[in-house]
Every structure is written in C-alpha cells, then in structure tokens.
Design brief:
By secondary structure, this protein is α+β, with helices and mostly antiparallel strands. It has 12 helices and 4 strands; from the N terminus they run ααααααααααβββαβα. Strands 1-4-2-3 form a 4-stranded antiparallel beta sheet. α5 crosses α10 and α9 runs antiparallel to α10. The longest helix is centred in the N-terminal third of the chain and has 36 residues. It is elongated and about 85 Å long.
Length: 351
Amino acid sequence: MSTFTRSSTSTSTGSTSDGKNGTMNATTTETNRRPRLSGMTWLVWRQHRAAFWTILAATALSVAWIVYQRGQLVDFLDGYGYPGKSLDEAGGRFQQYNDAFSFVSTGLQAIPILLGVFLGAPLIAGDLENGTAKLVAAQSMSRTRWLATKLALAGLVVVVSTGVLSAVFGWWWNPVKSEATAVMDWTSGAAFNTTGPVPVALTLFSVFGGVAIGVVLRRTLAAMVVTFGFTVVLQLVWGYFLLSLGNVVTVTTNKGVTGENAYPSLPHDAHEIDQSYVTGSGDLVSWGTCSESQTDAARQVCLDKADVVGWSVDYLPMSQMNAMQWFGASILFALTAGVVAFLFLGRKRLV
C-alpha cells in the first residue's frame, strides 16, 4: 500500500521514483525545465502562429539566398580585379549581380506594405469583427494586457525579421557600396530604405498604423484595403522628404563655366542635388542662362554680360547616410509611439 501511495504521489507531481532510492527521473525533470509560453502570450501566439511562422520562415529563406548571392558577388569581384578595375568597364558581366540587387531590394521595399496589410490590419480588427474581443473582455485578463501582448509579439516578429534582413542586405551590398552608377545610388529607396534602421522603423509604423486602422474600422477587409492605401502613401511621402534628412553641402568655383576644371570636383559617392552659376557679386543664376546662344563665342559674351564667374553645386556626401537613416528612423519610431499611445488610450473600444 505504501509503495502505491508513493508512486501515485510522484506521478501527480510530475516526477517518478525508482522505488529504491527515490531519485528523480532525469528525462521528466528536463521536460519540466523547458521554457513554455503560457497565459495570454500562448493564446496570442497560437492565434497568429500561421502569420508569425510564415514571416520567420520567409526571413530565413531570404537570408540564405542573400548569403549565397554575396558569395557569388565576392568571387566575381576577386576574379575581375575590383577595386583596381572600375565596374563601369565590366559591362554585361556584372548585370546578373545588379539584377539580383534590384530583385531583392524591390522585395524588401514591399515588406512594410505586405506586413501592414496582412499582419497589422487583421491583428485586432479580426477579433472585433468575430466577437473574440468580447470573449477576452469577459475573462479575468484585462484589455490592457491583451492589447500589450498582441502588439509586443507582433512588434517582436517585425523587428527580428526586418532587422535581420536589413543587416544581411547591407552586408551583401557593402563591397560595392560606393558604386552608385553601377549598382545602387545610396539615396534611392532601393538602398536607403532597405539597410540600417529604416526598414525596421518603416515596417513597425506600417504594421501598428494598420492595427490602429483596424481598431477604428472594426472590419478586417475594410481595414486591409485602407491600410494598403496608407502604406503606399507613406512610402511616397517618405521618398519625397528623404533627401531633406541630410545637411546639404555647397561648393563654389570662380574659374568660369566652360574651361577645363571649371566644374567643381565632388566626392566619388556624392549625390548632386542642384547646380547654378555664380556671379561676381555672389548671386546665383540658373545654369540654363545663355543656353540659347548659337555659338560658344556668343555664349561666352552672354555669360560675361551676366557677370558669371563660376559654378555653385549642392550635394550630399555618402558619409551622411548613416546619420540620415537614424534621424529618419527616429521620426518614424516617434510616430509609431504615438500610434501605440492612441491604441492604449482608446482601449475601451476593444469590445
């Protein structure tokens, strides 16, 4: 009788005894020590596990492909003799690598839109539409904790996936980063929005913006449609103001405009924004001034009459890229924080 009692007790506590020295079964103990999701975290993960696992699996596959492509790129560069030889002279031999960059960068730029529509918009709108939110509100768990868990898990998946992709894509691009004409201009969305903190910030704002839209509309399909429009407009507005994130550098000359070495020398990786003529009094006039002159001599007479003495060129050096990305990302993170505050302040609507 005592043996049966001891075995039953051991089983009920999740352990087994060997009946001789009372030692704990190592396998059962190890199982009990494994970390497990529980409570609201488990519920939210299980509810959205298909979307979360799809995102993480797609990230893993993309990383593997990028790593392979970088190996191919490095082998080509070593065999070609870069950087001793310019890639501008490679011609069609480099085209396949350029196409790979364009393909991947296009996919990375679409991530904020895709995750905003298919993860952010249905995250809470689906619960409001099918009544799951009312069921959660009827339990002992508060709406604040439910909302916080939803946003935290979604945000964690977004940060991990976009952060890893951003780092790996930047690592792939780094060997040819200064080749703006042959590969990607660093001020273009193909490079600026796919490296550093920008893709993380853009995607977080898109996803949480989609969540807010879903809370307001309370219908999944409507929220997805509106979120698609929101994320597309966000990309367009972001691209319009992108260059304003940097500090424009201006260089001027006074050696005329047509002679040899008259045009100012810019850094190899600089992005030129604007150019004008400079007069003797320091005023700027359009570079199209005197363009209607029929001959070079007539043009020179026109320029002398306008007192043009040189060039003024505005540009952004590539050395500002990192600072511009963090400045822009900080703005997006602040906007995301505002959306999160709106969601928590309006949590009474989550029923």
